[in-house]
Amino acid sequence: MRAFEIIGGLLALAGLWALPQWGELSPYVLHIATLSAIYAIPAIGLNLMLGYGGLVSLGHAGFVGIGGYAAGLLMVDAGWTFWAALPAAMLASGAAGALVGALCLRLRTHFFMIVTLAFGLILHAVMNNWEELTRGPVGLAGIPRPEAIALFGAEIAFRRLPDFYRLTMAAAMAALAVQALIVRSDFGRMLAAIRQDEVLASARGVPVMAMKVAVFAIGSAIAGAGGAFKVSFLRVAAPASFDMLESINIVLIVIVGGAGHLLGPVLGAGLFVAVPEALRVASAWRLVVFGLVLVLLMRFAPQGLAGLAADAVRRLRGKGALRAPGHA
Amino acid sequence: MLLAVAEQVLNGLMLGSIYVFVALGMMLIYGVMHVLNFAHGALFMLGGYCAHLVFTQAIGNYALAILAAIVMLIAVGAVIERTVFAPLRDNLRNQVIASLGLVLFIENLVVVLWGPNALQFRIETTQAVVSLGVLRFRVQHLLIIGVCALCVTALFLFLQRTRFGTAIRAVAQNPRAALVVGIDVVRVHRVTFAISMALAAIGGALLGPLFLLFPQMGDLPLVKGLAGILLGGMGSIGGAVVGGLLIGVIEAVSTLVIATDYRDAVTFTAIVLVLLLRPQGLFGVRTREEA
Question: Cβ contact (<8 Å) for B95 and A298?
Fold first, then answer.
């Protein structure tokens, strides 16, 4: 069964990698696929916090914005390359996450949600109003795509959509890999212990506060990477891309995909970006439907799509296991 | 300077009254059902749109339009309470996320039905001006403050002097004990939700004519109302009133000192400071374990 999963995963990867070569595929499809990958990255960061750590942060888009603006400003004003600006952006949003986390994580449940919401709004207000730095509501324009690199003698020009698409796909895969490593490490197990019973975890010697701040910082750093890719893709960093609605959208992506499942954020991001495009619905209708889906999921399937799929697989396997002794 | 301060204080009281409508509604639901309804701002906005709809399409009488908006919002609230919050009781995370879903649903449904552009809501009281000494104000300012004072007084009397009000307070203190002494807890939840919806409808219908109606008009009052609740102390009705008014006044007066662009950031910073330095608020006591 494991071999089956690995082969399936590799096939899916190969398919995604070759997407730009699929016959007469329009640039439009690549555009959608790129945007899905870009949404998946911050969602993976939030999944670590919300799905695995149990921390419902309502200001995640603010940290995506810190990464986006840090990368944009370093490239536009300081003339850095994308490759230098990307780690700097992650460092900036990760450090901001550690700072905000250290302040907010003393609070729990409602209070934690409100204070993260407030921080998201403060960050948005700063992006909107600190005109000397951020250029205000119109946004920071002229952000370049990543510089071309030479690999095995061939030049990869990320100006072009197919190569940029592959880059964001690779970045999303890297974020997924980081997520899987964290979840399966001792760190991830301690996180699960805190989520299930904080007092018990603390009594068993888990450094609760340090763990929470760490996962907040890591989640924010991943969000910052997403921000850097987003502004490089859109060529502009504007406050409207990082507002409260966007924070809710990221929560939505994580929940619809399945919080606490490795592939949940990817499923959620794909659905969030691609399905409405495929159905060609107006953007307002799309959010009406997603809002309704979110409410319905909470009522009837709070484990999300990945959770539903996992349940289905378990049920199939469970039946097989029950039947097996009779056949043997 | 003194004149400017007085003017801003009255402006602040008007804004604060709007925040009190939001804060009281959220506070009641939090106190009785122990959940924060993040869709409250969207419902506040819906109240404004309902009043506008009735005013322009049906009767053209502002007071009746507000009453109609109250009835419509109570109906919407009844559906939401029964289909979303009641079934998810005792699951805080899922309730909050469902309420975020409601925000998306309601705000964008309004965009679909009424369009994304702001609507004008013209009534006489926004045009008429009244003089208070050297200060001149629109009648609508005074109307908002007056209606708010009236509603707060009525709510206090209801909660303190009536049998059902006592039942609501009992459920807020201890739902299980309330059930044991024979209080219909489900009914208390429903009535509380209806009161909260009525307050949201009044708030939205009062604010609409003063500025414009637009789908996101409830977002900031939601956050400001939350700030008021936190400032007053989570779980205290009086605290929500004082906190809401204070946030309005602080915000208005702060515009004399710092750039207006940062007016909203002042409130958000107040939330963060209160939560970090005095999580029980000005009047609250630290009871529940999350603070």
Answer: yes
pLDDT digits (tens, 9 = 90+) for B128-142: 788 777 777 788 888
In sequence order, what are the residues at sequence separation of 6 or more whose Cβ sits closer than 8 angstroms to the Cβ of residue A304?
Answer: A254, A255, A256, A257, A258, A259, A261, A264, A267, A268, A297
Residue B79 contacts A where some CB pair is shorter than 8 Å = no
Mean pLDDT, chain A, rounded, equals 85
| Main-chain phi, psi angles of A282, to 5 degrees | -65, 155
Chain A residues with CB-CB distance to B269 below 8 A? 118, 122
Cβ B272–A119 below 8 Å, yes or no? yes
Q: Which of A298, A299, A300 to mutate to test the interface with B (most CBs of B within 10 A)?
A: A298
Residue B31 and residue A110: Cα distance in Å, rounded?
Answer: 12
Confidence label for A326 from pLDDT (cuts 50, 70 and 90): very low
Given a cut of 90, whether residue B203 has pLDDT beyond it is: yes
252-281 in chain A: CB under 8 A from chain B: 252, 255
Give the N- to C-terminal CA distance of chain B in Å, as an integer. 40
B100 touches chain A (CB under 8 A): yes
CA atoms within 13 A on the CB side of A17: 9
How do strand A236-237 and strand B135-138 relate by DSSP bridges? Answer: unpaired
Q: What Å distances lie between residue A237 and A100, A139, A161, B21, B55, CA to CA? A: 22, 5, 19, 36, 41
Task: Supply the CATH classification number for the domain B2-277.
Answer: 1.10.3470
Neighbours of B205 (CB within 10 A): 31
B101 CA to chain A: closest CA distance, Å? Answer: 4
Helix (H, G, I), strand (E, B) or coil at A16: helix
Q: Which tens digits make up the pLDDT trace of A272-302?
A: 888 777 776 666 788 888 888 889 988 888 8
Element (H, E) at B130: strand B129-132
Q: B94 and A288: CB-CB below 8 Å?
A: no
The full DSSP string for A105-149 is TTS-HHHHHHHHHHHHHHHHHHHHH-HHHH-GGG-EE-PPPPPPE
- Sort out which chain B residues have CB atoms less than 8 A from A285's CB and list them: 108, 112
Residues with Cβ within 8 Å of A19's Cβ and at least 6 positions away in sequence, in order, are A25, A29, A30, A33, A165
Checking ipTM against 0.95, whether it exceeds it is no
Looking up tokens 């004990």 gives B177
Of A279, A292, A234, give the one whose Cα is nearest residue A72.
A234
B88 lies within 8 A of chain A by CB: yes
Q: Which amino acid is at A128?
A: N
- How many angstroms separate the CA atoms of A114 and B96, rounded? 11
Nearest-CB residue to A115 (from B102, B265, B271) = B271
CA distances to A143, A179, A225, A309 from A45, in Å:
24, 8, 10, 22
Tell me the shortest Cα–Cα distance from B139 to chain A, in angstroms: 32
Q: Where are the domains of chain B?
A: 2-277
B119 DSSP β-pair partners = B213
Are the CB atoms for A237 and A228 separated by under 8 Å?
Answer: no
- CB distance A299–B87 less than 8 Å? yes
Mutation target among A49, A122, A126 for the B interface, most CBs of B within 10 A = A122
